[in-house]
Write a structure and sequence with these properties.
Strand order of the largest sheet: 3-2-1-4-5
Order of helices and strands: EEEHEHEHEEEHHHHEHEH
CATH superfamily of the largest domain: ATPase, nucleotide binding domain
Number of helices: 9
CATH class of the largest domain: Alpha Beta
Number of domains: 2
Largest sheet: 5 strands, mixed
Structural class: alpha/beta
Shape: globular
Strand content: 15-25%
CATH architecture of the largest domain: 2-Layer Sandwich
Bound molecules: 5'-O-[(R)-(carboxyoxy)(hydroxy)phosphoryl]adenosine, zinc ion
Helix content: 40-55%
Distance between the termini: 26 Å
Number of strands: 10
């Protein structure tokens, strides 16, 4: 089915727009908001205002890069949730107005389903059923995907998300927000010489609050003995906490894959940009004889390309929304 769809993502602190045409992502523009760095975390009010400033130029750029004009669009898609309501509203309102003015259908997309479907942003594609490890700033999930629109969470974090574990650990080390990518860089020069406990959680669920606490007391004790401990050991500290988080993530993924006898494995979400996770997943995949699908960086962190991919599947099924649709801060699938 021929189609040209504009997709908008505004669930957190990135304003993004993408065009998908006949199954291929033609453009994917992301405006990241630097303003939050000052505060050590995302400030919802600041995010909403920045989305408002960014949305028109970002959409214009996405159209221009794809060489598509507004009147060629067959549908407009948007992230309905989960996310910050004030941020979501900016994308939703824009999408609604555009759909109304062009008389085209609206497509609502679940941000977390879109992360999972980012596996279809670029070939080769996994075959069904597959398992996706979604690791972002707000979520850590193992998702069983039976078909594009039929997926089930079979394991998830009972407390902090993996991205939060990176960000909070980094904050304790005095790093800027978001600390995940900074830890990734520092760790490349270090070795995982410091040990942190392994959580004991049943089934395929995760917990990261225990290692956060262990990390806090570890730093407190070391700094009491040597005030320069963090500065002198930042590479090894980063490598150690990263090693622990990544090991926890991969052990549960392996347990799920073995139990369900699934050998198609993908990863998604901001933390899947982590270079150590990518290397270790590849290694595990070779040992376990998995077909491992690791998306390019641009489809890992928040981006409208993945919203466009998810929207395309809904477009083919004729799953449209009406003008009364509103944002959802939480949205289970
Ligand atoms: O999916 P995402 O862009 O936004 C959410 O929906 O949450 O994920 C953001 C998270 C942040 O916690 C950030 O620190 C983490 O992804 N992240 C990383 C890396 N790049 C982004 N964590 C570890 N290593 C990275 N290279
Ligand atoms: Zn995300």
């Amino acid at each position: 089915m021929q189609h040209t769809i504009l997709a908008i993502e505004s669930s957190c602190d990135d304003t993004s727009a993408a065009i998908i045409q006949n199954g291929s992502v033609r453009s994917n523009i992301v405006a990241s908001q630097d303003a939050h760095r000052l505060y050590g975390g995302v400030v919802p009010e600041v995010a909403s205002r920045a989305h408002q400033n960014n949305i028109v130029p970002v959409v214009r750029q996405a159209l221009a890069d794809a060489e598509v004009s507004v009147n060629q669009l067959d549908a407009v898609a948007f992230t309905r949730g989960p996310g910050l309501v004030g941020s979501l509203i900016v994308g939703i309102s824009f999408a609604k107005a555009l759909a109304l003015s062009q008389d085209i259908p609206l497509i609502e997309v679940n941000h977390l389903q879109a992360h999972v479907l980012s596996a279809f942003a670029q070939k080769p594609y996994p075959s069904f059923p597959f398992l996706c490890l979604t690791v972002s700033g707000g979520h850590t999930q193992i998702v069983l995907v039976r078909s594009p629109l039929d997926m089930e969470i079979i394991g998830q974090s009972i407390d902090d998300a993996a991205g939060e574990a990176f960000d909070k650990s980094g904050k304790m080390m005095g790093l800027d927000y978001p600390a995940g990518p900074i830890i990734d860089k520092l760790a490349q020069k270090g070795r995982p010489v410091f040990e942190f406990p392994q959580p004991k959680i049943q089934g395929f669920n995760y917990s990261f609050s225990g290692i956060k606490t262990a990390f806090k007391y570890f730093l407190r004790d070391q700094v009491a003995a040597n005030p320069d401990f963090i500065a002198e050991n930042k590479y090894d500290i980063a490598a150690s906490i990263q090693h622990r988080i990544v090991t926890i993530l991969l052990q549960k993924l392996r347990k799920a894959a073995r139990k369900l006898q699934i050998n198609q494995i993908t990863i998604a979400g901001g933390v899947s940009a982590n270079s150590y996770l990518r290397t270790k997943l590849q290694e595990m995949g070779e040992k376990e004889r998995w077909d491992t699908f690791i998306p390019p960086f641009k489809f890992c962190t928040d981006n409208a390309g993945m919203i466009a991919v998810a929207a395309r599947f809904k477009y083919m099924e004729g799953e449209f929304s009406d003008q009364s649709v509103g944002p959802l801060a939480k949205w289970k699938f």
